[in-house]
Amino acid sequence: MKLSAIALLGSLIACASAVQNLQTADKQLNISSPLLNGAYVAGQILPLSYTPLSSNIVLNVYLKGANVNESAIALNADTSNDPTSNVPIKVDNMTYYQHSINYAIPTTYPAGNYECIFENVATHTNTSIPVSLLAYVPPAGASSAIPTAVSTAPAVSETSIIIAQPSSA
Predict the structure, then answer these.
(1) Is 165 within the bounds of a domain?
(2) With a threshold of 0.90, does the pTM exceed it?
(3) Rounded to the nearest 5 degrees, what angle is found at the Cα of 121, between the Cα atoms of 115 and 123?
């Protein structure tokens, strides 16, 4: 029984240490994701979570790497207090709304160190969060050839429907 309680306590401490709440220098935004120095994989999702603490915020989010040009993740990102599409958080009798963006990291991004930059255009404040990207690994059974061109058209699939006719026998 004691061993179970110790294991549970250890798990809770590990989970709590994985949660981050970084506040920007202008004190207008809390950033809970991506994690500081977190490792993410090209071809997968870079989760972004932030909570605006002020209505005076115009937010742009970028991803920048040494060998990759800065790419915009979100320009004029949502900072609204809309309870229908955002998670309300109460702090000291104030209600704030947490926002989330799931950025699909391009498979072409090379492994290396990157910065996720949260820019408050209204206050001219940037907050950079260092992250590491691991190289894209194609799924098992996928061709190892890298495509030279990517279609921007949505994937189209066709479905045939066969309607059985009653027999005349």
Answers:
(1) no
(2) no
(3) 105
Domain that holds residue 73: 19-134
Compute the distance between CA of residue 133 and CA of residue 113 in angstroms, rounded to an integer: 6
Cis peptide before 34 (omega within 30 of 0): yes
DSSP the chain: -HHHHHHHHHHHHHHHHH---EEPTTSSEEEEESPTTEEEETTSEEEEEEEE--S---EEEEEEETTEEEEEEEEEE-----TTTSEEEEETTEEEEEEEEEEE--TTPPSEEEEEEEEETTTTEEEEEEEEEEPP-PPTTS--PPPS----SPP-------PPPPP--
Q: Which pair of structure tokens corresponds to residue 96?
A: 């704030």
Q: Is residue 158 part of a domain?
A: no
Q: What percent of the chain has pLDDT over 90?
A: 53
Q: Is 57 a domain residue? A: yes
CATH number of the domain residue 59 falls in: 2.60.40.2950
Q: Among 66-70, 121-125, 145-149, which stretch is predicted with the lowest mean pLDDT? A: 145-149
Q: Is 146 part of a structural domain of the chain? A: no
Determine phi and psi for 8, rounding to 5 degrees: -65, -45
What number of CA atoms fall less than 13 Å from residue 132's CA on the CB side? 4
What average pLDDT does the segment 126-148 reach? 81
Query: How many domains does the chain fold into?
Result: 1
